């Protein structure tokens, strides 16, 4: 492959990540090209969420080199080019917040301190809400929305920043089928615009037609990188398109440790995603 | 009402107003981050600061600010590196602060009554220098809390997202902790250190009974805080009968009364919202008639009307009735 004139959105060489001293990702090479719609797949604990958190700079690499848009992650400052939809149970917090406010916070990458929202900001926020189809919920509190609608609000928040590169961590987890279809429609519109999307998914469901490249993680390593795979193929040893039922045994027993969480107040907790 | 024209009373009123504005402004972010009791802890730590001022002869306002800010930074560091809530670590620091304060006051030969003025507030002790310090500090708190509200909101709402948006999450967390420490000191003249957390949290809890957005919660909490602070001070200044009461308890009880009045309204609104949530649209498989139905449903028939796809279902007695030509269907 020839070296592209424009650096790829993501270029990771020999990436390794350790959580609380334990190596989780090892030897990960991943280049994502502009316009890719990539699905990061794998069983629970295979390291797919850890990889996304490393790619967004939330987790430090213990080894390897990561460049976003040609800039090493340490020097990277063009945060407005990234959109991140974290994996989480909901969008609610201790104080009510309206859908508009949550989406508007995605526009912060374009705003300077102590400046009011510009007309372009407002237009971007309204458009993001429209793309995910929450126009009639703008003034509602996010905690009053269903799980799927909250997830769409979080996607709209990432959209509001008009980024070039999207990271979505398990956007379909705990979302019912109609909402997954609505979500797929929103992501389809993104894809049409030529956005680069990195999607972590346990199962693709209605998102499957959008995906044009699958990366399957197993035990912290890349086990497959290439053509899009169907959900059932991900867990088979050879990634073949054998029509077996999805409920067969997982390819490997779960490797995740159960570390008892008995820590004194000053200890670092051993969160599975390395969060403090 | 002659009391209101006395200089010390006017100073106390100014202190009450700025406290009522500043404390709930910070409190909103603390509640958003589920750290409602942080103000309480910083209040305890500030006791040591006050005692230090009393012993050394430096103005207690400034020693309290310094000690509370140091305490806030330590708390934030512990919270950041330690357990998710770090509540045990916080408790250690809180009780250390309170015990240290009482011990220092004793060593300095100060009376417990002197310290009590700071623990539960006092109308008469606010000097001119104090009132200026309180106004400046409160202005800083309010300007930052309102001016940086988009950033502070985003950080408190979702730290991971804020970090990927390029915000200095750690700096903003530290800023909130320091602002909380400063507003504790602002509030110690009126509400007192042991009750300051109530003025940070209760107005927010009251406001969110009826609000659905962050900005209205913030504004309403600041308004409610000012009303409670001013009202409580006036009650303490003009007590019924011949008693002397500290303003702290009256301010807090007034704020709590506001919550007690608003809570049923909030509960009713939430109940109402649940009832009126639209039913999932779907085609009824069977066309089931509602049977004898002499009642005619309409806009103001008293039954809850819930949107169901393209029509309304009227809910009563465990049934959902939808108008269909001349009769009602069971939905």
From TrEMBL, chain A:
SUPFAM superfamilies linked: P-loop containing nucleoside triphosphate hydrolases
Keyword annotations from UniProtKB, A to Z: ATP-binding, Nucleotide-binding, Transport
CDD domains xref list: ABC_Metallic_Cations (cd03235)
Listed name of the protein: ATP-binding cassette domain-containing protein
One GO molecular-function entry: ATP hydrolysis activity
Ranges where the record places region Disordered: 243-276
Pfam families: ABC_tran (PF00005)
Domain of life per record: Bacteria
PROSITE patterns in UniProt: ABC_TRANSPORTER_1 (PS00211), ABC_TRANSPORTER_2 (PS50893)
Annotated ranges, domain ABC transporter: 10-244
Originating organism: Nocardioides flavescens
Protein family (similarity comment): Belongs to the ABC transporter superfamily.
InterPro entries (alphabetical): AAA+_ATPase, ABC_transporter-like_ATP-bd, ABC_transporter-like_CS, Metal_Ion_Import_ABC, P-loop_NTPase
UniProt feature, compositional bias: Basic and acidic residues: 243-252
UniProt-listed PANTHER family: IRON TRANSPORT SYSTEM ATP-BINDING PROTEIN HI_0361-RELATED, METAL TRANSPORT SYSTEM ATP-BINDING PROTEIN TM_0124-RELATED
UniProtKB/TrEMBL annotation, chain B:
Transmembrane segments: 12-31, 51-75, 87-107, 119-148, 169-187, 218-238, 250-269
UniProt cross-references to CDD domains, sorted A to Z: TM_ABC_iron-siderophores_like
Subcellular location, record wording: Cell membrane; Membrane
Family in the record: Belongs to the ABC-3 integral membrane protein family.
GO annotation (BP), single: response to zinc ion
CC annotations in GO: ATP-binding cassette (ABC) transporter complex
Protein name (database record): Iron chelate uptake ABC transporter family permease subunit
Keywords on record: Membrane, Transmembrane, Transmembrane helix, Transport
Annotated PANTHER family: ABC-TRANSPORTER METAL-BINDING PROTEIN, METAL TRANSPORT SYSTEM MEMBRANE PROTEIN TM_0125-RELATED
Keyword Ribosomal protein: no
Record membrane topology: Multi-pass membrane protein
